[in-house]
């Protein structure tokens, strides 16, 4: 692979303008196409084969589209100055309903002046609009049009808030300030790392082209597959981080070779042959980890996985083609525009650097370093025991937003459970004529008797008479774990021949949590196994491969500990933009607990495992190269850490800056990822790569690179080091480090 990559890098360096223009045109065309033809987003959390999905399917059979997803829109009315039933206000509401009845696709408008439609204080009302034939992909646009039609009520001084404004399409996350902040922070780190403006801009430019290409592909794919609202932001977050990092590793290697007097094109060729191989393997581990999410049995999570993988593929491709082209075009001008007082990196030797000194220090004190690192990491991971998983509702949205305001009005006027109604759909053993049938009445009473059910609406029988639909309102908010228990209790209702199914948001998220608990061990096992196998192919060292997988799991513990501290314990949730409920006490504001969606830890595991493996690959590559030169394990560890420490730290700072910038986004899942990824990368690049990994490698000695002869014979030669690209200095370069078995 190294020879192939070397030839590719050399060709790109010699034909820089062709490569550069091709990438710019491709990125502009793909991004322009996705902007010109924006695809809809769909964050449907349904899971095939679950009870909630069965209820959803039955809802579409004979009950009318008004009871199916996207068939109902609700408008909340609030009068701050008096009751809604006052004559002038009531007339204004009726005028608004008359306008709503004239809107396209509206089949029925239910008045708030009915039982269950107005609050006990008569100041909050609910207009329910049934629709048929509307485009469910445009429900957000439809909701806003219906809200506008209710202007007669607003003209009378009433507040009108669409309860359904929080649809997935309406909450699509747009790119904006966070990306700009992340790029600026990355540029500053690169300027300090390289000391020149020209060198600092190369990784930024390559990453932007990579992200634009990936987003363009993702945007166009949205026309053929359901694309979650978080897809673009996740791809941008990960794409920026890995795109800048991969280019940084290549650029650092190239500048060292230039400093050693290697000609430009030859330097680029060697860089891509060696560091380019590490980039390909590092990107491969990220893609493998993300691809394993396909085994989670959760379509939304699987889509987020492979969509994010597209951004990683784009980052790898630009790193091994566009970056060499830029390096070839710039030549020695890569060191132009030096920043005063900044020496930057770029020397050919690690000796004398702070990281080399740290490596030597760790090599002399491996046991103390190992024990101290384990204690610190254990303390960071300890809060993870308090990690609270559960569904998020709009009560955790940004203060002043329409979804948050609608949630608060609904909870105040009708109770928190009205924000997450349960849709009970039962299949009957025989045909019934109407809702007065004894079997339907028995079923209704059974639902009413379930502990935690506050209100049950009149049952509806479908056109075939073989299914009945009952809307049940729980006493608890959708994010309350007790709501999930109500779902399970309703499903447990037993009547002869009756199959009871429960759908709705709360039921769907309950099923998602159960599916995650069921599939998590499988996904983790596959990710760890495949990543270890890839490292085995890269370094032909089974102990190193297994140890690397274990070390990555350790960094995950620190990430989950940080998530628990910020969100579950609530110490810092306000600092990341999670607004506590209105009229909260000072203590409640400081310790505002926020649940974490059940699928987030698994997604975070896949992303973090892949990103952590990046630094492992680059560190091991450097240690392996040193070991093959002189065969001294402790010295190789110190030299490997010395030669990569500054680069890995710079790369980690860039990723941390990018991820922290995304915490400003209003979406709670993006905030969760921003906190978890930033903490994990910071811990991984410092404590784990700076202390724990070197200490364990020193203690293992030659066992690091031990490989049974039978295994060495069957493994394909996919060396990631590219050591044949440099001057031969020792016989060990041509012979594998093996041991008989």
From TrEMBL:
Keyword NAD: no
A Pfam family assignment: MMPL
Keyword Transmembrane: yes
Record keywords: Cell membrane, Membrane, Transmembrane, Transmembrane helix
Membrane topology per record: Multi-pass membrane protein
Domain annotation SSD: ranges: 204-329
Signal peptide, first to last residue: none
Membrane-spanning residues: 12-37, 180-198, 205-225, 231-251, 272-298, 304-330, 370-389, 522-541, 553-578, 598-623, 644-665, 677-700
Record's subcellular location: Cell membrane
Name of the protein: MMPL family transporter
Taxonomic source organism: Nonomuraea monospora
């Amino acid at each position: 692979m190294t020879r192939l990559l070397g030839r590719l890098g050399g060709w790109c360096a010699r034909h820089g303008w062709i490569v550069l223009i091709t990438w710019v045109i491709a990125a502009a065309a793909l991004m322009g196409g996705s902007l010109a033809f924006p695809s809809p987003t769909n964050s449907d959390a349904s899971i095939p084969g679950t009870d909630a999905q069965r209820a959803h399917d039955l809802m579409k059979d004979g009950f009318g589209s008004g009871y199916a997803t996207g068939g109902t829109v609700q408008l909340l009315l609030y009068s701050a100055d008096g009751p809604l039933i006052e004559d002038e206000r009531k007339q204004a509401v009726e005028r608004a309903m008359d306008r709503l009845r004239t809107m396209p696709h509206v089949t029925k408008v239910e008045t708030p002046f009915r039982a269950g439609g107005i609050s006990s204080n008569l100041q909050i009302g609910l207009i329910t609009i049934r629709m048929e034939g509307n485009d469910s992909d445009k429900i957000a646009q439809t909701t806003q049009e219906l809200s506008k039609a209710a202007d007669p009520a607003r003209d009378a001084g009433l507040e009108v808030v669409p309860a359904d404004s929080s649809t997935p399409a309406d909450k699509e996350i747009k790119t904006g300030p966070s990306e700009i902040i992340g790029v600026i922070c990355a540029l500053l780190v690169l300027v300090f790392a390289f000391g020149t403006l020209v060198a600092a801009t190369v990784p930024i430019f390559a990453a932007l082209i990579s992200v634009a290409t990936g987003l363009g592909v993702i945007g166009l794919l949205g026309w053929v597959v359901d694309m979650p609202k978080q897809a673009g932001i996740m791809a941008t977050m990960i794409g920026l981080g890995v795109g800048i990092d991969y280019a940084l590793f290549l650029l650092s290697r190239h500048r060292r070779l230039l400093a050693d007097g290697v000609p430009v094109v030859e330097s680029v060729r060697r860089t891509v042959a060696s560091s380019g191989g590490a980039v390909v393997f590092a990107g491969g581990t990220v893609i493998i980890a993300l691809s394993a999410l396909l085994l989670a049995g959760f379509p939304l999570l699987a889509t987020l996985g492979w969509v994010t993988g597209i951004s990683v593929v784009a980052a790898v491709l630009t790193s091994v083609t566009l970056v060499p082209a830029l390096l070839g075009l710039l030549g020695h001008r890569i060191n132009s525009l030096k920043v005063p007082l900044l020496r930057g990196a770029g020397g050919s030797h690690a000796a004398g650097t702070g990281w080399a000194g740290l490596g030597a220090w760790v090599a002399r004190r491996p046991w103390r370093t190992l024990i101290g690192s384990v204690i610190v990491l254990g303390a960071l991971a300890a809060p993870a025991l308090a990690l609270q998983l559960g569904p998020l509702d709009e009560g955790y949205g940004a203060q002043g937003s329409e979804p948050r305001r609608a949630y608060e009005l609904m909870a105040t006027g009708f109770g928190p459970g009205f924000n997450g109604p349960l849709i009970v759909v039962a299949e009957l053993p025989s045909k019934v004529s109407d809702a007065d049938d004894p079997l339907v009445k028995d079923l209704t009473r059974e639902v009413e008797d379930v502990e935690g059910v506050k209100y049950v609406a009149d049952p509806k029988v479908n056109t075939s008479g073989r299914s009945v639909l009952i809307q049940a309102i729980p006493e608890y908010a959708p994010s309350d774990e007790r709501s999930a228990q109500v779902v399970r209790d309703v499903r447990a209702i037993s009547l002869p021949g009756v199959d009871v199914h429960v759908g709705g948001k709360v039921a769907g998220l309950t099923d998602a949590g159960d599916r995650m608990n069921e599939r998590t061990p499988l996904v983790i096992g596959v990710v760890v196994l495949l990543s270890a196998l890839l490292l085995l192919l890269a370094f032909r060292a089974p102990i190193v491969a297994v140890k690397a997988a274990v070390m990555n799991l350790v960094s995950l513990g620190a990430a989950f500990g940080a998530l628990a501290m910020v969100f579950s314990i609530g110490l810092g949730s306000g600092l990341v933009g999670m607004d506590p409920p209105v009229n909260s006490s000072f203590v409640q504001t400081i310790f505002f607990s926020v649940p974490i969606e059940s699928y987030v830890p698994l997604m975070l595991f896949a992303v973090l495992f892949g990103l952590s493996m990046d630094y492992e690959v680059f560190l091991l590559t450097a240690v392996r190269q040193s070991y093959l030169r002189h065969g001294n394990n402790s010295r190789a560890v110190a030299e490997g850490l010395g030669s990569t420490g500054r680069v890995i730290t710079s790369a980690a700072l860039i990723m941390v800056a990018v991820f922290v910038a995304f915490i400003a986004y209003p979406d709670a899942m993006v905030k969760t990822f921003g906190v978890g990824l930033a903490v994990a990368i910071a811990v991984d690049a410092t404590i784990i790569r700076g202390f724990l990994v070197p200490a364990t490698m020193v203690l293992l000695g030659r066992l690091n690179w031990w490989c049974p002869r039978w295994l060495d014979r069957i493994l394909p030669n996919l060396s990631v080091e590219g050591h044949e690209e440099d001057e031969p200095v020792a016989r060990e370069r041509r012979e594998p480090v093996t041991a008989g078995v």
